[in-house]
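step 3/5: co-fold with zinc ion
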Amino acid sequence: MKNRNVILGIDGIPFELMRSLSDKGVMPNFKELKNSYYFKEMKSSIPHISSVSWSSIITGTNPGEHGIFGFSELIPGTYSLSYPNFNALKSKAFWHQESEKRHIIINVPATYPAKILNGIHIAGFVALDLEKAVYPKTCIPSLKKLEYVIDIDSSLAHKQSKDILFDELMRVLEIRKKTYQFFWNKLNWNNFMVVITSSDRFGHFLWNTYANTDNKLHSRALQFFQKIDDFIGDIKDKLKENDNFIILSDHGMEETKQNMNLNTYLEQEGFLKLSDKHKNYNRIAKGTKAFVLDPGRVYLNKKGRYPNGSISNLEEKDIIEELKKIFYDLKYQNQRVIRTIHEKNDIYSGVNIDKAPDLVVLENSGFCPKGGIGKNVIFEQDNLSGMHNDSAFLFINKEINLELPKVQDVVGLLGGN
Ligand SMILES: [Zn+2]
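step 4/5: write tokens
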């Protein structure tokens, strides 16, 4: 019997949560697995957001190769935003690298629209239209019967009752489980991948119910993780003896203290000039040295690259040093809020590095970096409870030699089946 690969993704769940909830007995199935096999913290992508990280996980490459640096980018030669999807991915997902093998791929973020493959693909968020999210289309009637949804109804997050939101997270998690069960025996597959994304929504909207053990909904947070553990147990029971079983997340999560409007800071420091004409990033005016796209991607306003660009190659180095200085100086109540600033050549390599941000600013714990244009204040709060961090996790049911696993290492772990 040749090895098959089963990959369960749990979006946005940090290493420490998996470790502590399994040790405490909330996740007994995962406890048994992690105590018997390989379980380590895995560094997320830079920046640590879903579309970038999952693109690295499924291709085995860094953003300089696969070309996805964020949920948004600017259309070349303009200041207009676009939202790259699966068509913008420049490296092949593993299911396109090995087309002689059969694959079932369910709910992987940033894989919309679904493309032809040897198997079945149901794309995850951001996926606007179920019809375009599914290959082959003959699967759609079955999905409708399963009452399949791509994401939770996020409008419920703004309702007073958080119980309703928990109900929705549980409902969507159950649909995901029924869907994987439905497809499990549909094909004689080599690779089966399914991603739980309710977990990321839980993190953003309800992190406090987990982090604060006194929260009156804490028991519901634990129920939610028990249900994820049931999902893990359900897969575990279905595995054949030689199957590889990988469980992983794309990034971690932690409590949000403040959001940081970095473009407002750049404006205050004289690096960003905005006109009152136009909207959004099209407000960027002559005299701008740099601007930020979500979450902390800093772009120099280069001559020849942008309509109002003025920075020459000769000036680049000095401006990068000036930017580093002002970002490291940024403080909230006397506390520095920027932990590290990376230059693109230090973190990215590959044929798409020219699309990379010149700098990536990484935050200290709790300070969520934001792009966006025209905000009045640098620091502000919103009603989100959790924000991403770079502490993802990796589990595999065999002995491997990876001291500090990275997201782009995962494809290399797939068994040669
Ligand atoms: Zn994510």
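step 5/5: annotate
Residues 65 and 350 are 5 Å apart (CA to CA).
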